[in-house]
Q: What sequence folds into this?
């Protein structure tokens, strides 16, 4: 039921921007959630605003555990509104079999089976090195989707009824249980039996100190003035955006800073002057490259950033 | 006898979060590992939150409950922990050279000396601050007969959200999203397999060809039809004017997923029913409506039942009782969806109609209605 060993997750390995993937700085509570979910052998369900880092956590965990070869142990499953739970386990190609039978070509049954993300993860046999599986945006799926995965997530096995019961692939069990990270934007409530089986963690929007740490890790720490002014404007924008609307997120902050730094260094634009002239409370002044932060017409109007005005 | 720590807190969390006893067993198991220090409130709080709280909207309520439980049990928590069975299971780290971290950071005394020195040299981290809530104009709200002035409309709305579980959608016009309505009402469908009607069973045909190599005959299966039918009656009296958009949104989205006919009338006491809000269509008389439209169908009545006016009218209640009794004899079931928040029903006619099953127009209300109708 519980794993024999703990696989710690510190988040320290990615604090600098010299790694193969973008830096990811988890909070202490998030690190605890990862370790707890791993040890208790339960999926980790992450919720939070769009752009807060839910999807990136799984990649960061895989990178910390497996280094540059992490992609061998990392699989993702992007859920869509048409997704079915069975797709993550396996697919039996009935049409191909029909075609082969008509052409009198006899192939073994397993030739028509292709394993999905979870199916491949269950077949992994390297002890102590579980796959990291990301099931992204599960709330987009149809209403029955989470319930259809309950048994497989609990028991870590599934059956392929298209095969004879004595076939070796009829029942597939996880040799090394994968570490499953599930993300949800809370567009829809997930069923209680599904939630019960998960360790649930909500990623809050980081405080200013954490945002600074994130910016420094991404290489924007050298220009302190730009960082101070940028964070001031960003905080002002968030404060004045309606809580029910889409608010500027961490990923948008990073995109914005990327272009601010480029504009300052390569184009020699005086972005600092423009930033200093913007006052969030009175909403006067221009926000440089506001398109990276303000995504709705209401926000653009609220902050008086109409291009044509 | 073993005294289980924080079990009362677990029981409080259990109902709201649909936990099982295994969740408490996991908690006990983690307490018994000797590499963690749960004497610290912060660590214990974090652990309980991760294990027992399944939705961020319940975090605030959990914080209050935990604080109460901690104050009660802090003094004897150590004794309770010590009374647990002595078999301890050490969580061993993965055998790799550079990993030796605990699940939960232990107290500073047990950290290596170098880390302690580094920590003491560092400045203390600033405590994370919540972003300040935007200030809005002062707003008066009416709860029954009291007028309460609130300083901050945002605070007021947060409290309403928590107390009434009233989800405001991003449109700011209606409290429900289209998708939410459709998802809930999809569960109202009742599939019946019609013996006389048949459709081709594609899977069966392909399976036969796969096994035998040829198709000897077409395979058929019974046709599945949805037999659940709904009549939606929208109250178009003047008090419901503000809720017409919401009522029509609900009716339109229900129609997308189930067989639904929409009618309009004033207060359900009217003699005529219309197929449009403005009452320009041909009116259907009450006796025809009862005889031809209603029989054996479920009825959803969208009305404030007098809650908007904030008044109690015994005459109206008696009339409604009579009308609902008449309709109940003809229809399968009749329920009401009230767009006013439940807190506003108190001391109004809406509050005194137990003969009509009524829910507020929220996510939970829709869910309960569909469950009731099924």
A:
């Amino acid at each position: 039921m519980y794993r024999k060993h703990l696989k710690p997750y510190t988040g320290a390995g990615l604090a600098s921007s010299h790694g193969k993937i973008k830096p990811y700085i988890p909070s202490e509570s998030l690190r605890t959630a990862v370790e707890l979910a791993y040890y208790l052998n339960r999926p980790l369900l992450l919720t939070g605003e769009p752009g807060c880092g839910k999807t990136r956590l799984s990649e960061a965990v895989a990178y910390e555990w497996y280094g540059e070869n992490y992609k061998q142990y990392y699989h993702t499953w992007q859920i869509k509104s048409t997704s079915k739970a069975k797709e993550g386990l396996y697919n039996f190609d009935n049409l191909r079999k029909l075609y082969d039978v008509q052409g009198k070509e006899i192939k073994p049954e397993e030739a028509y089976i292709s394993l999905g993300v979870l199916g491949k993860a269950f077949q992994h046999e390297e002890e102590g090195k579980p796959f990291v599986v990301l099931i992204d945006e599960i709330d987009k799926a149809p209403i029955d989707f989470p319930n259809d995965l309950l048994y497989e997530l609990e028991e870590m096995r599934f059956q392929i009824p298209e095969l004879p019961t004595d076939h070796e692939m009829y029942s597939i069990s996880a040799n090394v249980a994968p570490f499953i990270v599930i993300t949800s934007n809370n567009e829809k409530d997930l069923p209680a039996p599904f939630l019960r089986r998960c360790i649930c963690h909500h990623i809050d929007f980081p405080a200013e100190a954490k945002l600074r740490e994130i910016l420094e890790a991404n290489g924007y720490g050298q220009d302190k003035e730009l960082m101070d002014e940028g964070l001031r404007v960003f905080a002002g924008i968030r404060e004045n955006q309606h809580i029910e609307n889409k608010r500027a997120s961490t990923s948008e902050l990073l995109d914005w800073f990327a272009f601010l730094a480029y504009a300052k260094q390569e184009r020699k634009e005086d972005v600092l002057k423009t930033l200093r002239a913007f006052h969030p409370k009175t909403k006067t002044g221009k926000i440089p490259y506001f398109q990276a932060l303000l995504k709705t017409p209401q926000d653009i109007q609220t902050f008086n950033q109409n291009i044509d005005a | 006898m073993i005294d289980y720590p924080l079990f009362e807190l677990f029981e409080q969390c259990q109902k709201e979060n649909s936990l099982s006893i295994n969740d408490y067993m996991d908690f006990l198991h983690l307490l018994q590992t000797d590499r963690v220090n749960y004497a610290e409130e912060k660590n214990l709080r974090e652990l309980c939150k991760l294990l027992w709280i399944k939705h961020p909207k319940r975090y605030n309520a959990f914080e209050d409950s935990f604080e109460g439980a901690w104050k009660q049990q802090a003094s004897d928590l150590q004794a309770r922990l010590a009374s647990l069975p002595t078999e301890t299971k050490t969580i061993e780290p993965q055998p790799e050279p550079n990993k030796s971290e605990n699940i939960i950071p232990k107290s500073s005394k047990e950290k290596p000396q170098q880390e302690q020195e580094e920590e003491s040299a560092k400045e203390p981290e600033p405590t994370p601050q919540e972003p300040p809530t935007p200030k809005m104009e002062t707003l008066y709200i009416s709860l029954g007969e009291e007028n309460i002035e609130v300083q901050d409309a945002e605070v007021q709305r947060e409290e309403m959200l928590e107390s009434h579980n009233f989800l405001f959608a991003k449109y700011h016009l209606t409290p429900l999203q289209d998708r939410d309505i459709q998802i809930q009402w999809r569960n109202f469908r009742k599939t019946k397999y019609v013996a006389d009607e048949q459709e081709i069973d594609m899977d069966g045909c392909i399976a036969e060809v796969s096994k035998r190599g040829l198709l000897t005959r077409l395979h058929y299966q019974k046709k599945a039809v949805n037999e659940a039918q709904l009549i939606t009656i929208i109250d178009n009296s003047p008090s419901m004017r503000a809720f017409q958009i919401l009522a029509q949104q609900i009716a339109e989205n229900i129609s997308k997923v189930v067989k639904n006919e929409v009618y309009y009338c004033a207060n359900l006491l009217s003699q005529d029913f219309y197929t449009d809000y403005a009452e320009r269509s041909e009116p259907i008389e009450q006796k025809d409506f009862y005889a031809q439209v209603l029989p054996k169908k479920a009825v959803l009545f969208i009305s404030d039942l007098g809650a908007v006016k904030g008044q109690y009218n015994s005459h109206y209640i008696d009339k409604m009782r009579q009308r609902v009794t008449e309709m109940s004899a003809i229809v399968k079931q009749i329920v009401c969806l009230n767009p006013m928040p439940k807190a506003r029903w108190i001391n109004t006619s809406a509050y005194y109609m137990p003969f009509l099953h009524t829910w507020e127009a929220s996510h939970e209300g829709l869910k309960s209605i569909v469950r009731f109708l099924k």
